[in-house]
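Predict structure. Input: Tetratricopeptide repeat protein, 64 residues.
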Amino acid sequence: MIQRFEEALALYVEGRFEEALVIFSTLSETHGDGPSQTFIKRCEILKQEPLDANWTGVFRAKEK
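Output follows.
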């Protein structure tokens, strides 16, 4: 599980949200993984917008 999460996280940081989303979704369904559920939400938001040239993997929430 940890290796798959790390793989998904690396894809996320690279801006490959669709690919990361597949792995995070599998982890969430299989393990009820809370962190994966958070990243699923972030991937859904981020894939709707063009990736900023200065993307570092840091998610800045626009709403509280």
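The mean pLDDT is 89.
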